[in-house]
């Protein structure tokens, strides 16, 4: 990790420490980057603020000679020099690429460049961006107004669709992988472990942040004033000056109550509240108290913290471990003795549902109409509806299927309506073919004339559920995720 020391920003020197805080490269450089592929860019103020590269011993192995220098990726690093661009001695900045020996393998000929990723790099020529391979061959012509790195075979690019500058995603064949219908004012690659990319939309200096999936559908609407990419299943988002965290479903899992919030790395995120900074885990629990003036993200198991104008180092090895709790399926909120534990495992295994994050199932969250009908649809094999209409709603095919099966009626679906016990039993009963029960529903709060009476009687006979006590079934009570998967497990998982 780079660290800098000195009297002020004018006279500091930078070096590196290891994960124990031991100085491994003494402070000797005027500025540094981060190590990448065994080398780090370093700057010398006395030599016209030029950049070179040093190895892990601190030895400068590529001399100070570049006006700008980037990190190594795929064995190459982008660099820039002032070179003669006109015969009369006019000089200008040109970019190219060097290898780890310092050899210029792609000539300094571009207006700007970005690092290599998946064998391709974005380069600017005559004011437009395209992509080259490591032999400097132009793979995608320079026709775009901006371009970013490839990831998983696609890359965001910007072009004009009058009167706007907009973003879309292209594949390696320069074909649209995600069409430009989003009209994004900025777009980012799909990062880390999420299948979501951050986008920004707006005009007149007012922008909102949201996320799209790899089909180009808006997965999380652009409603946040600020947002960051997902790490470890969570993304920091800000609204009205307060930060919190959402999961990949867009659900707020840690309340928006912080003045600052960093990304989760190694299960911890730096947050600030009441003028002090500390660290929380993915459950929102305080792991390192709020006692620092500032705190920074973990990297390689260590993090910088600032207190009283001084910097210090936190190590994951020095943080007391959180007491281990036996969990089910990797979900911290599902314990082996929970009544729904087996049902959760079954539902996840059958792809009926997944967790609300990589580590949480949220069994006590209320299920909506859309969720229960989607679960039921998936439990029945996700049959294709008789339609060629496409939509971005995750429950769309489920809604069509349920209508075909007669599970719902009317002109509205009511996707976000809370699903009740009566509705759940009726849906499951109809999906089973509406069999006639042997007896009646013997509950004081289930009238014989109720539409769901036979469904309740059938569910009780088949031991899918029972009453809630005191001769009551509580048909109007809402169902949780834990209850729904348990009902489905009892009905279909035997």
Which percent band covers the strand fraction?
Answer: 35-45%
How many alpha or pi helices?
Answer: 6
Overall average pLDDT: 82
Instruction: Please tally the β strands and state the result.
Output: 34
What structural class do helix, strand and pairing data support? mainly beta
Helix content bin: 10-25%
Placed side by side, the strands forming the largest sheet appear as: 4-5-6-7
Query: Ends: how far apart?
Result: 54 Å
The description of the largest β-sheet is: 4 strands, antiparallel
Quick overview:
With 494 residues, the chain is mostly beta strands. Helices cover 12% and strands 36% of the residues.
Task: Break the fold down into its secondary structure elements and pairings.
Blueprint: E1 2-5, E2 13-17, E3 23-29, E4 31-32, E5 40-44, E6 50-54, E7 60-66, E8 68-69, E9 77-84, E10 91-98, E11 104-110, E12 112-113, E13 121-125, E14 128-132, E15 138-144, E16 146-147, E17 154-161, E18 164-171, E19 176-178, E20 186-187, E21 196-203, E22 206-213, E23 218-224, E24 226-227, E25 235-239, E26 242-246, E27 252-258, E28 260-261, E29 269-273, E30 276-280, E31 286-292, E32 294-295, E33 302-307, E34 310-315, H1 341-349, H2 369-379, H3 396-404, H4 421-431, H5 453-461, H6 481-492
Antiparallel strand pairs: 1-2, 2-3, 4-5, 5-6, 6-7, 8-9, 9-10, 10-11, 12-13, 13-14, 14-15, 16-17, 17-18, 18-19, 20-21, 21-22, 22-23, 24-25, 25-26, 26-27, 28-29, 29-30, 30-31, 32-33, 33-34
């Amino acid at each position: 990790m780079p660290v800098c020391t000195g009297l002020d920003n004018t006279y500091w020197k930078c070096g590196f420490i290891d994960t124990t805080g031991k100085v491994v490269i003494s402070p000797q450089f005027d500025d540094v980057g981060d190590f990448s592929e065994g080398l780090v860019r370093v700057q010398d103020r006395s030599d016209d603020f030029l950049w070179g590269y040093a190895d892990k011993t601190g030895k400068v192995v590529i001399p100070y000679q570049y006006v700008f220098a980037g990190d190594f990726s795929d064995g190459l690093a982008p660099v820039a020099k002032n070179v003669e661009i006109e015969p009369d001695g006019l000089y200008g900045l040109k970019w190219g690429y060097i290898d780890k020996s310092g050899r210029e393998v792609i000539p300094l000929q571009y207006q700007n460049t970005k690092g290599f990723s998946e064998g391709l790099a974005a380069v600017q020529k005559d004011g437009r961006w395209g992509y080259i391979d490591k032999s400097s061959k132009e793979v995608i012509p320079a026709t775009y107004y901006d371009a970013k790195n490839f990831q998983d075979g696609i890359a965001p690019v910007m072009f004009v669709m009058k009167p706007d500058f907009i973003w879309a995603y292209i594949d390696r064949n320069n074909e649209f992988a995600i069409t430009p219908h989003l009209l994004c004012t900025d777009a980012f690659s799909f990062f880390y472990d999420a299948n979501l990319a951050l986008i920004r939309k707006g005009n007149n200096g007012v922008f909102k942040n949201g996320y799209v999936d790899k089909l180009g559908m808006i997965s999380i609407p652009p409603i946040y004033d600020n947002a960051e990419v997902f790490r470890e299943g969570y993304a920091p988002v800000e609204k009205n000056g307060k930060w919190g965290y959402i999961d990949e479903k867009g659900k707020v899992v840690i309340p928006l109550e912080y003045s600052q919030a960093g990304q989760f790395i190694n299960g911890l995120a730096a947050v600030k509240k009441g003028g002090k900074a500390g660290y929380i885990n993915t459950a929102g629990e305080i792991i390192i108290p709020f006692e620092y003036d500032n705190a920074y993200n973990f990297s390689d198991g260590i993090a910088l913290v600032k207190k009283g104008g001084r910097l210090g180092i936190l190590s994951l090895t020095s943080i007391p471990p959180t007491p281990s709790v036996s969990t089910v399926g990797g979900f911290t909120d599902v314990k082996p003795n929970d009544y729904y534990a087996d049902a959760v495992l079954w539902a996840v295994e059958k792809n009926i549902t997944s967790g609300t994050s990589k580590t949480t199932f949220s069994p006590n969250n209320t299920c909506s109409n859309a969720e229960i009908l989607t679960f039921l649809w998936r439990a029945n094999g996700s049959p294709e509806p008789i339609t060629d209409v496409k939509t971005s709603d995750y429950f769309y095919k489920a809604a069509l299927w349920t209508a075909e099966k007669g599970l719902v009626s009317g002109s509205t679906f009511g996707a976000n309506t809370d699903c009740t016990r009566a509705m759940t039993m009726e849906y499951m009963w109809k999906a089973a073919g509406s069999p006639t029960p042997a007896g009646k529903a013997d509950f004081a709060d289930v009238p014989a004339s109720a539409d769901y009476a036979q469904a309740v009687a059938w569910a009780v006979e088949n031991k899918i559920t029972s009453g809630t006590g005191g001769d009551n079934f509580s048909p109007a009570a809402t169902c949780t995720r834990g209850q729904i998967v348990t009902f489905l497990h009892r009905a279909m998982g035997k």
